[in-house]
Design brief:
It is built from eight helices and eleven strands. It is α/β, with parallel strands linked by helices. The strands form two sheets. It has a nine-stranded mixed beta sheet with strand order 4-3-5-2-1-6-10-11-9, sandwiched between helices. Strands 7-8 form a two-stranded antiparallel ribbon. Strand 1, helix 1 and strand 2 form a beta-alpha-beta unit. The structure holds uridine-5'-diphosphate. The site of uridine-5'-diphosphate has 22 residues, from helix 3 and helix 5. Its EC number is 2.7.4.22.
Length: about 240
Protein backbone atom coordinates (compact mmCIF):
# COMPACT_ATOMS: atom_id res chain seq x y z
CA UNK A 1 0.00 0.00 0.00
CA UNK A 2 1.44 3.36 -0.97
CA UNK A 3 1.31 6.15 1.57
CA UNK A 4 2.58 9.01 -0.57
CA UNK A 5 2.67 8.94 -4.36
CA UNK A 6 3.80 11.21 -7.11
CA UNK A 7 1.64 11.09 -10.21
CA UNK A 8 3.11 12.34 -13.49
CA UNK A 9 0.52 13.58 -15.98
CA UNK A 10 1.37 14.63 -19.53
CA UNK A 11 0.03 17.97 -20.63
CA UNK A 12 -1.66 16.20 -23.53
CA UNK A 13 -4.11 14.60 -21.10
CA UNK A 14 -5.80 18.01 -20.81
CA UNK A 15 -5.77 18.77 -24.52
CA UNK A 16 -8.36 18.96 -27.27
CA UNK A 17 -8.64 16.03 -29.70
CA UNK A 18 -5.80 17.48 -31.80
CA UNK A 19 -3.44 17.25 -28.81
CA UNK A 20 -3.24 21.01 -28.27
CA UNK A 21 -4.64 23.48 -25.80
CA UNK A 22 -6.61 22.94 -22.62
CA UNK A 23 -10.07 21.42 -22.97
CA UNK A 24 -12.07 22.07 -19.77
CA UNK A 25 -14.30 19.03 -20.28
CA UNK A 26 -11.37 16.67 -20.82
CA UNK A 27 -9.63 18.19 -17.81
CA UNK A 28 -12.76 17.79 -15.68
CA UNK A 29 -13.07 14.10 -16.62
CA UNK A 30 -9.47 13.40 -15.73
CA UNK A 31 -9.78 15.33 -12.45
CA UNK A 32 -12.93 13.38 -11.48
CA UNK A 33 -11.13 10.14 -12.23
CA UNK A 34 -8.28 11.08 -9.88
CA UNK A 35 -10.54 12.42 -7.12
CA UNK A 36 -12.79 9.34 -7.22
CA UNK A 37 -9.78 7.03 -7.06
CA UNK A 38 -8.47 8.85 -3.99
CA UNK A 39 -11.83 8.66 -2.26
CA UNK A 40 -11.75 6.36 0.76
CA UNK A 41 -7.96 5.98 0.76
CA UNK A 42 -5.28 7.65 2.89
CA UNK A 43 -3.00 8.15 -0.09
CA UNK A 44 -1.20 11.50 -0.15
CA UNK A 45 -0.93 12.72 -3.71
CA UNK A 46 1.47 15.09 -5.42
CA UNK A 47 0.95 15.69 -9.13
CA UNK A 48 3.50 16.89 -11.65
CA UNK A 49 1.91 18.15 -14.82
CA UNK A 50 3.72 18.53 -18.14
CA UNK A 51 3.16 21.12 -20.81
CA UNK A 52 3.41 19.31 -24.13
CA UNK A 53 -0.15 20.37 -25.07
CA UNK A 54 0.94 24.01 -25.06
CA UNK A 55 4.63 24.11 -25.84
CA UNK A 56 7.58 21.79 -26.13
CA UNK A 57 10.81 23.69 -25.67
CA UNK A 58 13.02 22.15 -28.32
CA UNK A 59 10.30 21.38 -30.87
CA UNK A 60 8.28 24.60 -30.76
CA UNK A 61 11.20 26.87 -30.11
CA UNK A 62 13.25 26.12 -33.21
CA UNK A 63 15.51 29.04 -34.02
CA UNK A 64 14.99 30.46 -30.53
CA UNK A 65 17.45 30.59 -27.71
CA UNK A 66 17.03 27.08 -26.22
CA UNK A 67 16.80 28.19 -22.59
CA UNK A 68 14.15 30.79 -23.43
CA UNK A 69 12.14 28.15 -25.27
CA UNK A 70 12.31 25.93 -22.19
CA UNK A 71 11.20 28.73 -19.89
CA UNK A 72 8.14 29.20 -22.11
CA UNK A 73 7.49 25.47 -21.68
CA UNK A 74 7.70 25.78 -17.92
CA UNK A 75 5.15 28.60 -17.93
CA UNK A 76 2.87 26.32 -19.96
CA UNK A 77 2.95 23.74 -17.18
CA UNK A 78 1.70 26.40 -14.74
CA UNK A 79 -1.33 27.04 -16.97
CA UNK A 80 -2.04 23.31 -16.92
CA UNK A 81 -1.57 23.16 -13.14
CA UNK A 82 -4.16 25.91 -12.68
CA UNK A 83 -6.63 24.18 -15.01
CA UNK A 84 -6.18 20.90 -13.15
CA UNK A 85 -6.58 22.64 -9.80
CA UNK A 86 -9.84 24.21 -10.91
CA UNK A 87 -11.15 20.85 -12.11
CA UNK A 88 -10.07 18.92 -9.01
CA UNK A 89 -11.62 21.46 -6.69
CA UNK A 90 -14.85 21.35 -8.69
CA UNK A 91 -14.74 17.61 -8.08
CA UNK A 92 -14.53 18.32 -4.34
CA UNK A 93 -10.85 17.86 -3.57
CA UNK A 94 -8.80 20.56 -1.83
CA UNK A 95 -5.59 21.28 -3.72
CA UNK A 96 -2.62 23.62 -3.76
CA UNK A 97 -0.68 24.67 -6.81
CA UNK A 98 2.97 25.27 -6.07
CA UNK A 99 5.31 26.63 -8.71
CA UNK A 100 9.04 26.26 -9.13
CA UNK A 101 9.13 29.72 -10.69
CA UNK A 102 7.64 32.22 -8.30
CA UNK A 103 4.38 33.85 -9.37
CA UNK A 104 2.76 34.70 -6.10
CA UNK A 105 -0.38 36.19 -7.63
CA UNK A 106 -1.54 32.83 -8.96
CA UNK A 107 0.08 30.14 -6.81
CA UNK A 108 2.31 29.41 -3.86
CA UNK A 109 6.04 29.10 -4.41
CA UNK A 110 7.32 25.56 -4.15
CA UNK A 111 8.74 25.10 -0.66
CA UNK A 112 9.49 21.50 0.19
CA UNK A 113 8.40 21.50 3.81
CA UNK A 114 5.24 23.41 3.01
CA UNK A 115 4.40 20.95 0.26
CA UNK A 116 4.81 18.10 2.75
CA UNK A 117 2.50 19.86 5.18
CA UNK A 118 -0.19 20.20 2.50
CA UNK A 119 0.15 16.49 1.74
CA UNK A 120 -0.19 15.57 5.41
CA UNK A 121 -3.38 17.64 5.54
CA UNK A 122 -4.85 15.68 2.64
CA UNK A 123 -4.49 18.35 -0.02
CA UNK A 124 -3.41 17.34 -3.47
CA UNK A 125 -0.27 19.29 -4.32
CA UNK A 126 -0.06 20.18 -8.00
CA UNK A 127 3.45 21.12 -9.00
CA UNK A 128 3.79 23.59 -11.86
CA UNK A 129 6.83 25.12 -13.49
CA UNK A 130 8.87 21.95 -13.82
CA UNK A 131 12.18 22.15 -11.97
CA UNK A 132 12.37 25.87 -12.61
CA UNK A 133 15.43 25.21 -14.77
CA UNK A 134 15.77 24.83 -18.54
CA UNK A 135 17.19 21.73 -20.24
CA UNK A 136 15.01 19.45 -18.13
CA UNK A 137 11.60 17.89 -18.63
CA UNK A 138 8.75 17.27 -16.27
CA UNK A 139 9.89 13.63 -16.08
CA UNK A 140 12.92 14.82 -14.14
CA UNK A 141 10.65 17.03 -12.04
CA UNK A 142 8.60 13.97 -11.12
CA UNK A 143 11.66 12.06 -9.98
CA UNK A 144 13.19 14.98 -8.14
CA UNK A 145 10.02 15.94 -6.29
CA UNK A 146 9.14 12.32 -5.51
CA UNK A 147 12.55 11.92 -3.89
CA UNK A 148 12.49 15.13 -1.89
CA UNK A 149 8.87 14.73 -0.78
CA UNK A 150 9.49 11.14 0.29
CA UNK A 151 7.03 9.55 -2.16
CA UNK A 152 7.03 5.75 -2.29
CA UNK A 153 6.69 5.63 -6.05
CA UNK A 154 6.43 7.63 -9.27
CA UNK A 155 3.27 6.72 -11.18
CA UNK A 156 3.94 7.44 -14.86
CA UNK A 157 0.49 7.79 -16.36
CA UNK A 158 0.12 6.87 -20.03
CA UNK A 159 -2.74 7.17 -22.46
CA UNK A 160 -3.82 3.82 -23.93
CA UNK A 161 -0.49 2.16 -23.22
CA UNK A 162 -0.84 -0.20 -20.29
CA UNK A 163 2.81 -0.51 -19.37
CA UNK A 164 6.27 -1.14 -20.77
CA UNK A 165 6.53 -3.51 -23.75
CA UNK A 166 9.55 -5.40 -25.04
CA UNK A 167 9.04 -3.65 -28.40
CA UNK A 168 6.71 -0.95 -29.71
CA UNK A 169 3.17 -2.43 -29.57
CA UNK A 170 2.00 0.04 -32.24
CA UNK A 171 4.50 -1.44 -34.69
CA UNK A 172 4.84 -5.04 -33.49
CA UNK A 173 1.59 -6.99 -32.85
CA UNK A 174 3.61 -9.63 -30.96
CA UNK A 175 5.02 -7.13 -28.48
CA UNK A 176 4.82 -8.45 -24.92
CA UNK A 177 3.88 -6.46 -21.82
CA UNK A 178 6.62 -6.57 -19.18
CA UNK A 179 5.21 -6.71 -15.65
CA UNK A 180 8.45 -6.52 -13.66
CA UNK A 181 11.78 -5.07 -14.71
CA UNK A 182 14.75 -3.33 -13.14
CA UNK A 183 15.83 0.24 -13.83
CA UNK A 184 19.09 -1.09 -15.27
CA UNK A 185 17.28 -3.38 -17.70
CA UNK A 186 15.14 -0.45 -18.87
CA UNK A 187 18.31 1.56 -19.51
CA UNK A 188 20.15 -1.32 -21.21
CA UNK A 189 17.20 -2.25 -23.41
CA UNK A 190 16.48 1.42 -24.19
CA UNK A 191 12.81 0.95 -23.35
CA UNK A 192 10.61 4.03 -23.46
CA UNK A 193 9.55 4.95 -19.94
CA UNK A 194 10.76 8.46 -19.16
CA UNK A 195 13.69 10.51 -20.33
CA UNK A 196 17.16 9.19 -19.57
CA UNK A 197 18.09 11.82 -16.95
CA UNK A 198 14.94 11.06 -14.96
CA UNK A 199 15.39 7.32 -15.28
CA UNK A 200 19.00 7.28 -14.11
CA UNK A 201 18.07 9.42 -11.11
CA UNK A 202 15.39 6.86 -10.18
CA UNK A 203 17.94 4.08 -10.64
CA UNK A 204 20.59 5.82 -8.50
CA UNK A 205 18.14 6.41 -5.65
CA UNK A 206 16.21 3.13 -5.94
CA UNK A 207 12.90 4.92 -6.54
CA UNK A 208 10.25 2.56 -7.95
CA UNK A 209 8.24 3.57 -11.03
CA UNK A 210 4.89 2.24 -12.17
CA UNK A 211 3.95 2.73 -15.82
CA UNK A 212 0.21 2.34 -16.37
CA UNK A 213 -2.79 3.41 -18.46
CA UNK A 214 -4.62 6.11 -16.51
CA UNK A 215 -7.57 6.02 -18.93
CA UNK A 216 -8.38 2.37 -18.26
CA UNK A 217 -11.28 2.23 -15.83
CA UNK A 218 -10.28 1.21 -12.30
CA UNK A 219 -6.51 1.37 -12.77
CA UNK A 220 -5.93 4.34 -10.49
CA UNK A 221 -8.27 2.94 -7.84
CA UNK A 222 -6.34 -0.30 -7.88
CA UNK A 223 -2.97 1.45 -7.69
CA UNK A 224 -4.03 3.69 -4.82
CA UNK A 225 -5.17 0.57 -2.98
CA UNK A 226 -1.78 -1.05 -3.44
CA UNK A 227 -2.69 -3.50 -6.20
CA UNK A 228 -0.42 -4.32 -9.11
CA UNK A 229 -1.21 -2.53 -12.37
CA UNK A 230 0.91 -2.09 -15.49
CA UNK A 231 4.70 -2.37 -15.23
CA UNK A 232 6.66 -2.10 -11.99
CA UNK A 233 10.24 -0.90 -12.38
CA UNK A 234 12.48 -1.29 -9.36
CA UNK A 235 16.08 -2.04 -8.46
N1 LIG B 1 10.62 22.26 -19.01
C1 LIG B 1 11.87 22.74 -18.59
N2 LIG B 1 12.34 22.38 -17.36
C2 LIG B 1 11.65 21.55 -16.53
C3 LIG B 1 10.40 21.05 -16.97
C4 LIG B 1 9.91 21.42 -18.20
O1 LIG B 1 12.54 23.47 -19.30
O2 LIG B 1 12.12 21.26 -15.42
C5 LIG B 1 10.06 22.72 -20.31
C6 LIG B 1 10.60 22.00 -21.54
O3 LIG B 1 10.72 22.95 -22.57
C7 LIG B 1 9.51 20.99 -21.85
C8 LIG B 1 8.25 21.77 -21.49
O4 LIG B 1 8.65 22.53 -20.33
O5 LIG B 1 9.54 20.63 -23.21
C9 LIG B 1 7.02 20.95 -21.21
O6 LIG B 1 7.30 19.89 -20.33
P1 LIG B 1 7.26 18.35 -20.84
O7 LIG B 1 7.77 18.25 -22.24
O8 LIG B 1 7.95 17.53 -19.81
O9 LIG B 1 5.69 18.04 -20.82
P2 LIG B 1 4.86 16.70 -21.15
O10 LIG B 1 5.49 16.03 -22.34
O11 LIG B 1 4.94 15.82 -19.94
O12 LIG B 1 3.47 17.19 -21.38
Amino acid sequence: MFKRVLLKLSGEFLANDNGFGINPETTAKLARRIVQALDGTDVELAVVIGGGNLWRGARNGQGMDAATADYIGMLGTVMNAMALQDAMESAGKPTRVMTAIQMAAVAEPYIRRRAMRHLEKGRVVILGGGNGAPFFTTDTTSTLRALELGADVVLMAKNKVDGVYDSDPRKNPDAQLIKDITHLQVVEQRLEVMDATALTLCMDKGLPIVVFDIFQEGNLERLFRGERVGTLIKS
